[in-house]
Amino acid sequence: MMQLGFSFIFPFLLIMALLQGGAGLFGTLCGWRPTLIFVLIAAFIVIIPVGGLPLARWMISFNANFSISLTAILFCKVLENSFGVKLLDKNAFLTCWVFSLIAGVILYPMALGLGRFDPYQAGWGFSWLFVVMCGVTILLLIMKNRFAVVLIAGILAHNLHLLESTNLWDYLVDPFMVLISCIALGSRFLRKLGSRP
Amino acid sequence: MNRRLVIILSLATLLLYAWPMLGWFSTLGREPATFATYAPSTPVVDDKPFMVEEFINADPEKGMVHAGSICQLPDGRLMAAWYGGTREGAKDVAIFLSVKGPGHLARWSKPKRVVDRISASRELYRYIKKVGNPVIFAGSGDQLWLVYVTISAGGWSGSSLNAKVSSDAGATWNNSRRLTLSPFFNISELVRNKPLPLNSGGFALPIYHECLGYFPEILWIQSGREGGAIAFRKSRMTGGQSFIQPSIVAYGPSLATAFYRCRSDEKAVGVAVTKDAGVSWSEPQTLDLPNPDSAVDGILLTDHSILLAFNDSVQNRENLRLAVSNDGGANWVRIATLDSTQGQKYSYPYLIRSQDGLIHLVYTWHRKRIKHVVFNEAWINAQMKRIAK
What we know:
Chain A is mostly helical. Chain A contains 10 helices and 2 strands; from the N terminus they run αααββααααααα.
């Protein structure tokens, strides 16, 4: 039941972000009142039945496991748009992009058949992946990098089985997250290149 | 973040990672997964050559059927599953079940629709475009498993696997459960061949991936106590783009041979061996048996020779033959042609042995019917003698 309820969170946040983005074209809409209106509209949209299924479940039909990292990034953006609160700073975002890109490069080519080794197997039960992720999280905490909190949310969600998947990888990264990371790091690289004298 | 918060969050991290670690440590004392090999006994029906052919479903005026599988229920009855509809991948395709017996003189029951895209969509609570490839197998007691494919978008490479469990030998079924087996939108995972029962009570179910890579895998699956939550993981047999649809024949608790459908230009049945109960597999080799990119299935005989059902061609599925190997798959003797007609298709063989020692083979016949062939080892031996003459 908790898993079913959680499956509505990502579509809800995505619609919130889209509404905020659309409203932002007509001026900044920060504060309780516009946020409450957006919450109600987004909640209504995700539960609208289309062809017998709530709109949120249509999104889940094509990708059931939006990672906790992507959900957390989206939540931070929605919160920032709503109240101007920045849960993650620039450093945390940069860490997130780099982490997701590295995870994607390690995971996807091999999981899709490159070679005999499948790193995705390590996401079930307990394995080197858990040890590495525990170490990475504590290291980021020591470095006072707020992305560590996102990783903690990831293992917490895994233990609570909030996603359909039982594999830790799916809580850490997803194809959209890797794509967004590529775009973010690519644009950052181009900006730096353009700013050179 | 102040120092106190860092310490608290670090402790929380350790505790959160300790939770799955504790689960892992608690399973260390258990025996590693080993194959519960069905020790074939001397047939008890009779020792005279015996072979019967029949059809499970009536000839449909329109449409197709495909991908039959069969298992034996605890009371001795046989149950077969397959998918059928107006055409492969059509929205009206459904998974059907039929029951026979006990006894080989009984008739197959009228096919009963057990899953279609509407029911799968309802149970999985998502859009399902089409269903396919069911594999049915019996667990402990009256437990029955149905693992099947659903597609929400695209063709077969958009497939995901789902499991459905019955606790009363198929009278009623639990809701389907989606199995997340791939990090890439959980697509391109399919099932075709029969599972191997494990001593732990679970199953090693051969599955395969077909998207950018085409390769065989094993789904290790087990239900919780009293039919509770399903636990699963998968492992890879080999990578690459050449071999799919593994058929695994176990010789002992840790020894097994896998036969593969071959997608490459070699056009020969692939083979690999494990000596550690499926943890690792040898590099695939090809046999001296042709394979027109079609499924094969094997089974162990009482003398530890292997019986293989396959399409004996590099071009098409116009025949279905049986071959026997006495040396672990190195050399094969073709013992019988079950069907052969130019321009027709005979495909997707699926072999099991029932408790009475009879061997049951189901396969797709002309894409119109699921054929059931029953024979005993005396019939196989008679064929061998006939060939030797």
